[in-house]
């Protein structure tokens, strides 16, 4: 089941034509992922401060399907599609009502603060399994 996060497109999100600037979709899906992680019980600040571990985006595939515009209300859907020892992959979609505007597959890796990949902590695996 996909997690949903709603947002409104502001003027600052658009280009000269009033269409959402392409890079802002990455901000929108980051907000959706961060909200999903928080809502399933993973405290990323605690993970960083107490365990010295963070999530880093390693790979992303994106597809722009239709434009979003100023004042649109969008929904970001986030769904876990794969989990490995040190990484997880989510599919994310941006919709306006029922129309799919943007989709991405995002792989994030768990890393130490020194930049070395490490296994996902048990608490993360348990939260993803729910």
UniProtKB/TrEMBL annotation:
Matching PROSITE patterns, A to Z?
4HBCOA_THIOESTERASE
Q: Which Pfam families match?
A: 4HBT_2
List the transmembrane segments.
none
Q: Does the keyword Transcription regulation apply?
A: no
Spell out the InterPro entries in the cross-references.
4-hydroxybenzoyl-CoA_TE, HB-CoA_thioesterase_AS, HotDog_dom_sf, Tol-Pal_acyl-CoA_thioesterase, YbgC/YbaW
Q: Which UniProt keywords apply?
A: Hydrolase
Q: Show the GO MF annotations.
A: fatty acyl-CoA hydrolase activity
Extract the SUPFAM superfamilies matched here: Thioesterase/thiol ester dehydrase-isomerase
Q: Which CDD domains match?
A: 4HBT (cd00586)
What family does the database annotate? Belongs to the 4-hydroxybenzoyl-CoA thioesterase family.
> What name goes with this protein?
Acyl-CoA thioester hydrolase
Species this protein is from: Aliiruegeria haliotis
């Amino acid at each position: 089941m996909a997690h949903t996060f709603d947002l409104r497109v502001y003027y600052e999100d658009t280009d000269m034509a009033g269409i959402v600037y392409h890079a802002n979709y990455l901000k929108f899906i980051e907000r959706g992922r961060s909200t999903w992680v928080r809502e399933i019980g993973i405290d990323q600040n605690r993970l960083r401060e107490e365990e010295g571990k963070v999530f880093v985006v390693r790979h992303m595939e994106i597809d722009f399907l239709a434009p979003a515009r100023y004042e649109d209300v969008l929904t970001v859907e986030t769904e876990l599609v794969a989990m490995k020892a040190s990484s997880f992959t989510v599919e994310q979609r941006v919709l306006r009502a029922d129309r799919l505007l943007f989709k991405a597959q995002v792989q994030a890796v768990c890393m130490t603060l020194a930049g070395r990949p490490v296994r996902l902590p048990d608490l993360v695996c348990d939260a993803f399994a729910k």
